[in-house]
Design brief:
The chain is α+β, with helices and mostly antiparallel strands. It contains 15 helices and 21 strands. The protein has 3 domains: 59 residues, 2-Layer Sandwich (Uridine Diphospho-n-acetylenolpyruvylglucosamine Reductase, domain 2); 112 residues, Uridine Diphospho-n-acetylenolpyruvylglucosamine Reductase, domain 3; 206 residues, FAD-linked oxidases, C-terminal domain (Vanillyl-alcohol Oxidase, Chain A, domain 3). Helices cover 30% and strands 24% of the residues.
Length: 440
C-alpha cells in the first residue's frame, strides 16, 4: 500500500512559488497511482502531479495531494527500427538523452534544460527553436494516462485521437500521465556558431537568418542595440569547443551575480551591465561542436523570474521594436539580459501556443541575485500588453496574468480542450489555483 507523507514543502527551482501539500506521494508503479486517486476521491481531495519543479509559476502547487513521479523513471522500450522510445512519465530528459545516445538515437529538438521530467516537458508546451521544428510535444507518438476514475487510457493519432490532440499539452489537467512514446532520429552532432550583430540588422533580415540555420535563435540585450546570434546545425564534425576562461574558472558566475546584486540598489547600472557583459562575452565569433543535447542545453545561471510568449512570426519585428521603444522611454525600468528570441513551427495541438501558426517566442528574464527580488512589475505588465496586442499566447509553465476570457480569445481549440477535460475529470480532481484561472 502506498503511503503519503505530511509536512513536505514544495518549492520550484526559481524559489518563486511553493506550497505545502497535505500528503506527498512518490509512487513506484501504476497500481500505487490508482490507490492515491482512490484515496483522493474518498476524501474529496485534489491531486497535483509534479515533475522536477522547474516551471517558474504555480502550475504545480497544491495544498491537497501531490504526486512526484521521480520513481517512475524507466525506459520501457526502445524500437530502433521505428526510431521510437517509450518511457515512464517521470524520467528526466537528462537520463533519457544519455540512454538514447547509447542506442544511437536522439530527440530532434530539446529545450534549454534537460533536468526536467518528460510528462511536464510536454504538458506545459516546452519548446526550443527551429522554424521547421515544433514544440517538444510534437515529437510524441503515443500517450498513456490514468484518469480521475482510475481508468487507463491510451491515445495517439489513430486511437482516442481527440484525447491525443488535447493530451500532448495537457497542463496536468486531464489525468496522470503514465508513459510517453517519443519519435527519435539517428544520434547527431550540432555545430554552433555564435556571432554578434544589431537588433535592426536581425529584424531587417529575419527571413535570411531563419533560412540560414536549422536551429536559429538570438539574444537581444535590453537598453542596447546589441544582439548575439546563434546558428546550430547538424554536422559530421567531431566534438570540439574553444574553452571560455571567464565561465570555466567560475569567475564569471560570481562576478555577474555580485554585479547584479549591486544593481538592485543602483538600478541605473543595468544598462551598463548589459553593455559590459555583451562586450566581455559575446562580441567574438565562436564555434563549437558537440552531441546534440549538450549543444541544445545551456546554463540558466541564477534564480529568475521569466515570461515567455509565442506571437505570430510576422509580428516579431513589431513586438521587439515596441518593447525597445518602451524601455527607451522608461530608463528607470530594469530589464536584464537577455531577451531570448526563438522560433517554432505551427501544429494542431489544442493548447499549444503554436496552434495553427508558425511562431516567435520572446522570453524575458529578471534575475534574482542571491535570491533577492528585483522590481519588475512595470516591465512585466508592459511586455504582456505588447504580447496581447500582437496576438500572443503565454508559455503555460511561466507566470502570467491571463484568465479564461483571454484564453478563449487566444485559442480556437480552447472550448474543445475544456470539453475533453470535463469528460475525463468531471469533478475537477486535477485542478489547482493556477488551473482555476485558466478554466473558470
Amino acid at each position: 500500500m502506498v503511503v503519503g507523507c505530511g509536512g513536505f514543502k514544495f518549492q520550484n527551482w526559481a524559489e518563486t512559488y511553493g506550497s505545502s501539500p497535505e500528503l506527498y506521494f512518490q509512487p513506484t508503479c501504476v497500481e500505487e497511482i490508482k490507490e492515491i486517486l482512490d484515496l483522493a476521491r474518498q476524501r474529496s481531495k485534489r491531486v497535483k502531479v509534479v515533475g522536477a519543479g522547474h516551471s517558474p509559476s504555480n502550475i504545480a502547487c497544491t495544498d491537497d495531494f501531490m504526486i512526484r513521479m521521480d520513481k517512475m523513471n524507466k525506459i520501457i522500450k526502445v524500437d530502433k527500427e521505428k526510431m521510437q522510445v517509450t518511457v515512464e512519465a517521470g524520467i528526466l530528459l537528462t537520463d533519457l538523452n544519455e540512454e538514447l545516445t547509447k542506442c544511437g538515437l536522439a530527440l530532434s529538438n530539446l529545450g534549454a534544460i534537460s533536468d526536467v521530467a518528460a510528462a511536464g516537458v510536454i504538458g506545459t508546451g516546452t519548446h526550443n527553436t527551429g522554424i521547421h521544428h515544433g514544440i517538444l510535444a510534437t515529437q510524441v507518438v503515443t500517450l498513456t494516462m490514468m484518469t480521475a476514475s482510475g481508468d487507463i487510457v491510451e491515445c495517439s493519432e489513430s486511437v482516442n485521437a481527440e484525447i491525443f490532440q488535447a493530451g500532448r499539452v495537457h497542463l496536468g489537467s486531464l489525468g496522470v500521465i503514465l508513459s510517453i512514446t517519443f519519435q527519435c532520429k539517428p544520434a547527431f552532432h550540432l555545430q554552433e556558431i555564435q556571432f554578434s550583430s544589431t537588433l535592426q540588422e536581425v529584424l531587417d533580415n529575419l527571413d535570411t537568418h531563419l533560412n540560414s540555420s536549422e536551429y536559429f535563435r538570438f539574444f537581444w540585450f535590453p537598453h542596447t542595440e546589441n544582439v548575439t546570434i546563434f546558428y546550430q546545425d547538424p554536422t559530421d564534425k567531431p566534438p570540439s569547443s574553444k574553452p571560455n576562461w571567464f565561465w570555466d574558472c567560475f569567475v564569471g558566475y560570481y562576478l555577474l551575480e555580485f554585479v547584479l546584486w549591486i544593481s538592485t540598489f543602483l538600478p541605473r547600472m543595468v544598462p551598463w551591465i548589459n553593455h559590459f557583459f555583451f562586450r566581455l562575452l559575446f562580441t567574438s565569433r565562436t564555434e563549437r561542436v558537440g552531441i546534440s543535447y549538450k549543444v541544445f542545453n545551456f546554463d540558466c545561471l541564477f534564480k529568475q523570474h521569466v515570461q515567455d510568449w509565442a506571437i505570430p512570426i510576422e509580428k516579431t519585428k513589431d513586438a521587439l521594436l515596441q518593447l525597445k521603444t518602451w524601455l527607451e522611454r522608461n530608463p528607470q525600468a530594469v530589464a536584464h539580459f537577455p531577451v531570448e528570441v526563438r522560433f517554432a513551427r505551427g501544429d494542431d495541438i489544442l493548447l499549444s501556443p503554436c496552434y495553427h501558426r508558425d511562431s516567435c517566442y520572446m522570453n524575458i528574464i529578471m534575475y534574482r541575485p542571491y535570491g533577492k527580488d528585483v522590481p519588475h512589475q512595470d516591465y512585466w505588465l508592459e511586455y504582456e500588453a505588447i504580447m496581447k496586442k500582437v496576438g500572443g499566447r503565454p508559455h503555460w509553465a511561466k507566470a502570467h496574468t491571463c484568465t479564461r476570457k483571454d484564453f478563449e480569445k487566444m485559442y480556437p481549440g480552447f472550448n474543445k480542450f475544456n470539453s475533453t477535460r470535463e469528460k475525463l475529470d468531471p469533478t475537477g480532481m486535477f485542478l489547482n489555483a493556477y488551473l482555476e484561472k485558466v478554466f473558470y
